[in-house]
Amino acid sequence: MGYYDVDEILAAGTKFSCKFNYDIPGLGYLEGNPGRQLNKNAKIELPLWLASVLAIVTGDQEHDDEEALPFVQFLSPEMFSSKVVNAIKSDAPTLDVHSISGQFYTLGIKWATLFSDVELAGVINKMLLERALEINRHASSVSVDAGVAPSDSTGTLLMTLDEFEKKLYKETHDTYRDAKLWLSRR
Amino acid sequence: MDINIEDILADLDRDTTAIDSGSAYLSSEHDTTRFSESNGDHKDVDRQVEVQKTSSHKTISAAADYECLVTHWRNERVAPELLAFPHLLMDRILHRLNNQIEHLENLSMGFLEHNFDKESKLPLLCMEAEVERLKFVVRSYVRCRLHKIDKFSLYLRQINQDRSNLESLNDLLSRQEMIYHERHSEILLKLFNNSILKHMPQELQAIDDTEGSVNMIDAPNWGKFVFLFVRGSPEGSSDPLQETNEDGQACYLVTIPELNEEVELTIGGIYVMRYHIIKHLLREDKVVLI
Q: What SUPFAM superfamilies does the annotation carry (chain A) (predicted)?
């Protein structure tokens, strides 16, 4: 979670749909028509780095009796909807995470921290454990010859991994391969 | 009635072993002296090293220093943070390395003068290989530290500026590393400044901004999981941290704050543990990372 982490920057660029709680003049370019004002309750896709700040910073109080609302409100995104959560719960290892989001874990962590979502954190935790076993299984079945392509089932698995899992797979695979090479050829 | 006489036996044992090792050491010394008389002076060093190894295993010795260096090296490779630099140890090792290289050169001069048949080249080869091995470890150790200095340069600077901090940068880094750290961050800052930062608005020009939405200072990942081997205290006794568990084995008690859970680390066991939990044990050499 560093400042210069490229994956982190890419993850923070993912767009989330948000709802504005205020009329704001001049910000029309977020909606695609600059020069106009941004209307209250407008639904806009904002990148996470912008939205996560705007969702915390509060605007002026309109009425004294109610709490100040933040500038924007997150609408619950597709990737953490109950549909996806149910799919994870039913069978995590065969889930095509990459089609949901390339940065699923990073975003999941950010989302869970932002909203203190314990349930989501638990689901993602379990999912990572189950999938890690599968990744290890595929990564450990390496051939010593460098030129041989991974088997079909591994290839299919690789298509469904998100960026973090790809890194995990690559590291595990390289470790297994290096150990095997060292043992066989010295 | 059983009388436990193990203490008395141990006392006797100590005496005999002292004599034993002494005589063995004496005999080996005689061996080598005889060799050195017939084969030239390069055996002398072997004997000297051996003398150092056998006679002073409690105090500082080349072998013990090497062991220590390897431990430091291994810890440094695995630990997420930059560990303190062993100034004295490195001084001794570099000094020895210099001496040995010089000595090797003197020996090879001897080969030019003498006949080749009479002299065995094996000790020379061994010494050369040994020097190479030691040099490799030192080099790898220093490189690993430099990598971490690159990574945490802003964090180290923060430590340096923070007067209230317990550790000063002088203990953490060697003199050369200090120079490297200063110059390297200077060069990097210059590059950033010239290429991008000068086009930024005034308040966004800081390279070590901690108030923005993302903290720009990368601190070490204290929660990193590490493999560790519990070595226990070197003496075996008089260790305030050490406790005894239900099975009668000596162990250390550590607490994981996030889970509020106590874990006992049995001596001789291997664990996977978050780094910040075992940091204090690592500092005191009770555990080693693997």
A: GINS helical bundle-like, PriA/YqbF domain
